[in-house]
Structures are given as structure tokens and as C-alpha cells.
Amino acid sequence: MPHVRGAVRRRARTVAALLAALLASVLLGPTASATPTRPPAPTAAQVREATAAAAAAAAALVTAQAQVDDADARLAALDDRVEALVEAWDAARAASDQAAADLAAARGRADAAAIAATSAQGDVDRLAAASYQVGADLSGGLGEWASVLDSVFRSDGVVGLADRVSAVGQVAASRRHEIQDATALRFAALQARLSAEAAASALAASESAVQAAAQTVREAQQAQQTEVTRLTAQRADAATVLTAARSHASALDRARQAELARIAAEKRAAAARAAAAARAAAAARAAADAARRARERQALVGRPPTDGGGSQQWPDGQPAATGAQRAAAVAFARAQLGKPYVAGGRGLADYDCSGLTSAAYLSAGVAMIAYSQAQFAAYPKVPVTALQAGDLVFFAFDPNDWTTIHHVGLYVGGGRMIEAPHTGDVVKYQTIWQSQLVAYGTRP
Predict the structure, then answer these.
(1) Is the C-alpha dihedral spanning 415, 416, 420, 422 positive or negative?
(2) In 3D, which of 62, 182, 166 has the Cα closest to residue 121?
(3) Across-strand partners of 381?
(4) 317-442 to CATH, choices 1.10.287.1080, 2.30.29.30, 3.90.1720.10, 3.40.190.10
(5) How far apart are the C-alpha atoms of 365 and 368, rounded to whole Å?
(6) List of residues 6+ apart from 74 with CB closer than 8 A
(7) Who's near 391: CB < 8 A, 6+ residues apart?
């Protein structure tokens, strides 16, 4: 329908105009000023604008790709239609060739029949002349017989022949078959001539169909060529749009990635500075704590804590390990040196304080609860001045109140223990002479 095609063309022109305007705004952008030696890095606002422009370019790319796909589909449909028309043309030409062959065969049969009929008519004429010369009685004469033969070819044809059959019966029996053969041959010649005329008409109709099919193919091919030219141009325009959109989108994405990389680098630098400051502060705190502990150790070296009377109410327990088992527990603890402190750690990758002592004794075949106060309560008490390797030493917020015990270590002799101290540290040797040392240890 013309008005529908016109609306489609107007819509296509409108889309093309909008697409061209969009690409112009995306690709050209604002007029650049003098180019500096080194352009500044894009700002966050410019990155947002670039992202929006990339989205617009992506939309333009989708539209152009749709136009390319539509052109390809329409070209394929045109190819199918022309191919079907060519097939119809080929069929018409085949039918025409067959009609020409039929006409040639019919004309051959007609010519042969006419020759045979002429020969037979000559025989009849000679028969009539001979009969006349010898005085034969033909009951009606040759004029009557000739009129019988001629009646076959008059307008009334075979019907008129029926009215004259009685005349044929008057012919002498010895000559009748010759006259009948002549009649049959002339009749066959007439049929062959009519068949040839019908074949000629069929050939003319076939040739007309071939011409019509050929004209249809020519018109379709012309329309196809016109459409191919138009769609090829449209496809080329769309390909140009695709190339430009992809190129600009790629440039925008590179600019955006560069800005994101710059921001990430700034964040990493800030994080590194913060981490360095935190490490410096932690180091300062650790140094201060180490200095405090050193002062405490210096003040307490060789001087056991005073029993303020709290041992009167402390629980006592029963020994559970042999000397060999206690030695094995110390050997296990030495094998864990350097492993990190983790709250709740029970080994073998990491430990907390009671997790280390319980794991050491469990390796020697002695099970104990991984809880410092329970380990204090479960076994016999030993003054710190009488400790032996394998004994447990304890530290409390109030050294006279066992319920404030919060840390335990494994005594190895010489005023030292192996302990898992605190978060951020590792299993290591440490002096037992600290301010919160409880006056009694235990011997499992």
C-alpha cells in the first residue's frame, strides 16, 4: 500500500536524522581550545559525561546494527522471490519446447496421412476409369461414389456419409475394400491436419506464457537491482555509523578506565599511608609495652610473687601426668614456636594460650580442658620457686584471686616459659617474671 510505504520511508528518514544528530554530538563534542602540552586527567564529572556518551553511542550502534540486519533480510527475501520467478520461467520454457515438439510430430503425421490419402484417391480414380472402360455396373455411377467420398469432407462430415451408405453397398464386392481404404486414409489425413492445428495453437499459447514469465522475471530483477542499490547504500551508512560509534565508545571507555585507575591508585596510596601510620602507631605502642614489661621484669627478676593469703581458698587437684609425659609436652611446645596466636586456636596451625598447653599435653596422652582457670583448678599447686619443666604458670588480674586468671604458659626452666601471648604475636619463649604472675603454678 503506497501510504504505508510512505510512512515507513518517512520514519526511516526521521530515525536516520536523529541518529546523525546523536553521532554528531557524541563524536564531535564541544570545540576544542588550544591543545596543552599534556592534557589534564579527566574529572569525575567528565567521566560521568563520557559514560553517558558511551551509552548513547551504544544505542546508536544497536540502531545501526538493526538497520543492517533489516537490509540483509530484505535482500534475502528478494533473492527468494526472483529465484521462484526464474523457476516459473524455466517451467514455461520447458512446456513451450514440448509443445513445439508435439507440433512437429503432428505436422509429420498430417503430411504422411495427406500423401497416403492422395495415393488412395488416385487408385480410386484409376478404378473408376477402368470400370467405365469395361462397362462395369457401379449402380449409380462414379459421380455418385465420388460424392460419397466428398461428403466426408463437407460441413456435415461423417453424418452426411451415413445417408449414402446404401450407395456404397451397390459397389461390386471385389472393389469395395479399395474404396473403403481410400475413405479411411482421407479421414485419417483430416484428423492429422486437425491435430496439427491444435498443436500449433498450444505452441502459440506456450510461447505467450514464456514471454509473460520472462517479462515478470525482468521486472523482478529490475526491482531487485533497485532495492539492492538502495539497501547497499543503507548498509554502508550503517556500517560507517557502527565503526564510528565503536571507535568513540572505545575511546570513552579508555578515558574512563584511566580515570578509574587514577582514583584506585590514589585510594591505594591513601590506604598505604594509613597502614604505615597504623603500623607506626602499633610499633610505638609495642615499644612502650615492651619497655613497660622490661621495667616490670627488671623489678621482679628472681623475686617470686607474695602469697597474700588467697591460696587458702584455692582449689587443689590430682596429678595426671608422669615426668616423661611432662617432658614430651615441653618438646611439643618447642615444635610450635613461631606459629601465630589466634583466639580459640587449638592447633596445629595456630593457638591461643590454653589451646597451646592443652595441645602439648594431649600430644603426650593427657587430656585437659583448654581453659586457663580450669587448668589451674584441676592439678596440684606448686610455688613458683619450686617449678619444674612441664609445670603450668598462670597470670591473673588479681594474683590473689584465681577466678581472675586470664593467661597460662608452659614452664621450661630457668625462669622461662613457652606461651601463645596475644593477637599479632606468635608462640615464643618468655620470662615468667611479670607483674600479674600468680604465686603458685600447677603440676599436671
Answers:
(1) positive
(2) 182
(3) 442
(4) 3.90.1720.10
(5) 10
(6) 227, 231
(7) 326, 382, 410, 411, 441, 442, 443, 444
325-365: pLDDT as tens digits: 999 999 999 999 999 999 999 989 999 999 999 999 999 99
> Would you state the pLDDT for residue 288?
77
Q: How many CA atoms lie within 13 A of 129 on its CB side?
A: 6
Is residue 407 within 8 Å of residue 372, measured between CB atoms? yes
Check if the beta carbon of residue 365 is closer than 8 Å to that of residue 325.
Answer: yes
Contact yes or no for 95/206 (Cβ under 8 A)? yes
Per-domain boundaries in the chain: 2-23+43-136+172-260, 317-442
Does an H or E element contain 441, and which?
A: strand 440-442
One fold for 2-23+43-136+172-260 and 317-442: no
Q: How far apart are the first and last CA of the chain?
A: 104
Q: What is the structure's pLDDT at 409?
A: 98
Q: 485419417: which residue's cell?
A: 188
pTM of the shown model: 0.35
Range 2-23+43-136+172-260 has CATH code 1.10.287: yes
C-alpha cell, 282: 602499633
Contact call for residues 440 and 384 (beta carbons, < 8 A)? yes
User: Which residues contact residue 420 at a Cβ distance below 8 angstroms, ignoring those fewer than 6 apart?
Assistant: 341, 345, 351, 352, 353, 355, 356, 426, 427
368 contacts 329 by C-beta, under 8 angstroms: no
**Model confidence over 355-403: pLDDT tens digits?**
999 999 999 999 999 999 999 999 999 999 999 999 999 999 999 999 9
Q: Between residues 429 and 169, which one has the greater pLDDT?
A: 429
Looking only at the bridges linking them, the beta strands covering 428-431 and 440-442 are unpaired
Q: Which residues make Cβ contacts (< 8 Å) with residue 197, sequence separation at least 6?
A: none
HSE, CB side, 13 Å, CA atoms: give it for residue 163.
Answer: 9
Q: What is the DSSP string of 289-357?
A: HHHHHHHHHHHHTT-PPP--SGGGG---------HHHHHHHHHHHHHTTTPBB-TT-BSSS-B-HHHHH
Q: What is the mean pLDDT of residues 161-175?
A: 53
